[in-house]
User: What shape does this take?
Amino acid sequence: MIRVFSHNDLLFMLRGAGMTLMLTAITAFGGLVFGFVLGLLKTFPHSKIANAIGALYTYVFRGTPLLLQIFIFYFGLPILGFDTSPLQSVSIALVAYSSAYIGEILRGSIQSIDKGQWEASASLAFTYWQQMRRVILPQAFKISIPPLVGFLVSIIKGTSLTSIVGYIELTKSGTIVLQATYQPFLVYAIVCLFYFALCYPLSLLGSRLERRFIPSA
Amino acid sequence: MLRIEGMSKSFGTLEVLKDVSLHVHKGEVVVIIGRSGSGKSTLLRCVNGLEPIDSGSIWFESRQVIRTPRDLRDLRKQVGFVFQNFNLFPHLTALQNVALGPRVVKRVPKREAESRAMEELSRVGLADKCDSYPANLSGGQQQRVAIARGLAMDPKLMLFDEVTSALDPELIGEVLKVMEDLANSGMTMLSVTHEMGFARHVADRVVFMHGGRIEEEGPPDQVFDHPESPNLRQFIGAIL
Assistant: This one.
């Protein structure tokens, strides 16, 4: 039965947008935490094994499609005996995937810091962690902000893939409304508008942060 | 104070240091001269462990420096290093640059570290630039901040690695002046430089390196006016 597109549909999609936002927040937070660890692993100067583990992780999760990772976690975790909710499953998949990218962004930023910064802090008798915390990371974070924001924007859009396993986020809620109203142009336009409304402020925030982290001239 | 015994170092098949031995006594200003590629900078970098050595030993204050991370840090707490390219921390102000070492390594409270940093900045004539970031300082000013940064750690020995080589000619004087004051205040210094005027007037001893070896050393007058080795004679002829 086909019904007319109403404000109830709009509210339903708005709730979907809320789920997308939540999924993005979880992914961003988890991805930053694990990506940070991964970035440190990959650049740790005293252990080739740590570097190799970091590199291997990156190869695996960057070298396979996000959609398949979502399938594997969504269908695989229950088979392995984990009683995970759909939200948990897709969150784990998204965090695992984004960690690989964020780790790589941080690795690049850390390695782009001039060798002289390491030497200067070493000659002040800093330990590795002191060098990282006081000298290297403050500079590396600044460099990593534009690519990090870019990646987070793509993660917002990437969460739409979870609609395929039936998780009701923005795209899925749009599809559900579409099936009842048969107004593809209107529905998908609204979905796009919602995505844009989520992504655009993040881009703005990114350019703002970037400016703030540059020492005032 | 510093004793280097039979130190050798290769980069791949290139032997940069060949059985180098050098003593620096307390309060002494030793200047190393020589052509580019003669191993001067590498010698200096080996002393505080920025480069590992292949053989030989380094003794500081009658104790052999074992090259474990902890032992190297112990050494570096007492030995300041100033780089050719300054290597100031760009995200920190001049004052923060100078205060960071004592704060992090010696756990000096922030206020105390900053007032000490202010003293060191005054000593190099840059108290008014304490809130400037390195990007807004001239090369000469940056290098003076870098010297203050080293001094704030209360070093017993200061190492200077061609500290005026990256500077515009008109900025060299202000840095040399700071180094001369430091030498006059009794600081033990080991300096690699191309500034022959500085070597002649400030050094207690001049060391000439050639092809990874110390070829000649002595008081400045002797080295500059009565060089013995042909290589040194040629080197001095080329620069004076």
